[in-house]
Amino acid sequence: MSLKGKTAVVTGGGSGIGRAVAQRLARDDAAIAIWDLNEQGAAETAALITAAGGTAVALRVDAADAAAIKGAADKTRAALGPITIIVNNAGITGNVPFLELAVDAWDRMIAVNLKGPYLCTREVLPDMLTAGWGRIINITSSSIQTGATNMSHYVASKGGLMGMTKALAMEFAAKNITVNMVPPGFIDTPMLRGAPVNVEAFAASMPMKRPGKPEDIAGACAYLASEEAGYVTGQTISVNGGRYLGSA
After folding, report:
1. What pLDDT does 204 receive?
2. Do 89 and 182 touch, CB atoms closer than 8 A?
3. Angle in degrees, 0-180, between the axes of helices 152-172 and 116-131, rounded to the nearest 10
4. pTM, whole model, 2 decimals?
5. What is the pLDDT of residues 108-144, one digit of tens each?
6. Is residue 45 included in any domain, yes or no?
7. pLDDT for the residue numbered 199
8. What residues are labeled active site?
9. At what angle do helices 16-27 and 39-51 cross, to 10 degrees?
10. CATH number of the CATH domain containing 198
11. Which of 24, 111, 146, 245 has a CA-to-CA distance to 57 between 20 and 30 Å?
12. Do residues 138 and 180 touch, judged by C-beta distance below 8 A?
């Protein structure tokens, strides 16, 4: 699935799922811009890609800051060309009982997990429209399919991103721009390891008896970014080891 000649942005590409996605798209010959608030992590991802023979730049970006996003997009275009693939992966999480959830915590969750993808997508869509080709891939969460205790702000933010995915898919389908989402389910990442959950015990309760790997999500993203997925839009590619078996 060659992406030669394409430029992809991966937000939150400095570790975990984002790093795996960036490396996989680079292996498929896309030029990669890693946008992450963690400048060191972004640089490490870029170094891994270039060491493997790929092309990558690393940029420190707050995915909820419109000015920072505009500046990063301009630098990406100058270094790699127009942006026609974006993977909106940057996000934060939290575990707070609803009645203890502060307004500022709610606002920050929505700003990063929902407003951020809106700002990033709005910035790169003109490049896709000019090219007559684009791929927008939103990383959501299996929690929007199952619910999650003490995570109402997180689930609401990811549920909003699901709605935006479907709305944009309808709006831009005729422009040869696809918009899809991948909701990961129990993927072994630094974020998961920092959550208040016993990873091994929970994994044992799942159909596959193990957590997923970031590379599992990367494979789904590679397909959705490819020419082979040109007639796939507004869809949910659930990568969760059988944790959730529904269609949305």
Report:
1. 74
2. no
3. 20
4. 0.94
5. 999 999 999 999 999 999 999 999 999 999 999 988 9
6. yes
7. 65
8. 154
9. 30
10. 3.40.50.720
11. 111
12. yes
- In this structure, what token pair is assigned to residue 90? 């940057």
Which candidate, 116, 121, 115, places its Cα nearest to that of 37?
Answer: 116
Report residue 197's pLDDT band, with 50, 70 and 90 as the boundaries: low
In a domain, 32, yes or no: yes
- For residues 221-227, give the mean pLDDT: 98
Q: Which domain holds residue 108?
A: 7-229
CB atoms within 10 A of CB 244: 16
Residue 133 falls within a domain, yes or no? yes
How many structural domains comprise the chain? 1
One-letter amino acid of 7 = T
Question: Per the structure block, which two tokens stand in for 28?
Answer: 């498929």
Whether 10 and 88 have beta carbons less than 8 Å apart is answered as no
Q: List phi, psi (to 5°) of 120.
A: -65, -45
Task: Tell me the pLDDT band of 226, cut-offs 50, 70 and 90.
Answer: very high
Query: Is 235 a domain residue?
Result: no
Name beta bridge partners: 56. 32
Rg (CA), the chain: 17
Write down how long the chain is: 248
